[in-house]
Amino acid sequence: MSDSPEKISMAGRVRNNFLTGLIICAPLAITIWLTFTFIDWADSWVTPYIPQRYNPEYYFNIAIPGTGLVVAMIIITMIGFLGKNLIGRSIVNFGESILNRTPLVRTIYKSLKQIFETVLKDQSTSFKKVGLIEFPTPGTWALVFISADAQGEVAARFAEMGEEMVAVFLPPTPVPTAGFLLFVPKNKIIMLDMSPEDAAKLLISGGLISPDYIPKALPQGAPPVTVPLPE
C-alpha cells in the first residue's frame, strides 16, 4: 500500500505528458493536413491544364506539391493587373455582359460577385466587428459578427418604424461556417473589442479559449472597479 501513491503519481505524470504532447501535436498535425489537402486540391484542378513544356514535373519526373497553386495565383494576379487597364476592363465588361444575358447564370454570378466585392474590399467593415445580442431569449446572449447596416427595402421598412437596424451573422458552435442572418436594432447590440479571429476561437472552442482582455483606462477621478473574490 505504501507504493500506491507513487504509482498513481507516475500514472498522473504520464497522462499529463500525453495531454501536453497532444495539445502541441494535434493543432500542428491538423494544420499541416489542411494545408496539404488544399494544395493537392488546387494542384488537381490546375496542373492538368499546364502545358507540358512549362510543367516542372515533366523535367524532374517527380510530383512537386504546390505547382498548380502557384500557377493559379500567378494567373489570378495577372488577370487582376490586366483588369485594371482600359483594354482588360473592356474584355471583362464584354464577358460580364454575356453572363448578365444568360438566365440562371446571371443570378449566380451577380450574387457571388457582390459577396466577394463586399468581403474583399479594403474599406469594407463587414465581419470586422464583433458584438453580443440577446438570443434566443431575453437575458441570454449570443456572439455575432457585424455585417453591415440594413440597406434597401429592409432599411426603408424599419425606418418607417423609427428603427435603425444592423445586419449581423449569428454562427453556431463549434463549426461557425453556417448560421443565421439577423436584423437587430443598433442600440440593442453590445459592441466588443475582441477581433473576429479571437471571436472565432471562442466559438470553435465552445467557450474554452477566451481572449485576453485589458480593460480601458478609467476616467480621471473615477473609483477603481473591484471584483469580489469567491470565499
Automatic annotation (TrEMBL):
Keyword set, alphabetical order: Membrane, Transmembrane, Transmembrane helix
Give the stretches traversing the membrane: 18-39, 59-82
PANTHER family, per this entry?
COV-LIKE PROTEIN 1, PROTEIN LIKE COV 2
Q: What is this protein called?
A: DUF502 domain-containing protein
- This chain's source organism reads Rhizobium oryzicola
Q: What is the lineage of its organism?
A: Bacteria, Pseudomonadati, Pseudomonadota, Alphaproteobacteria, Hyphomicrobiales
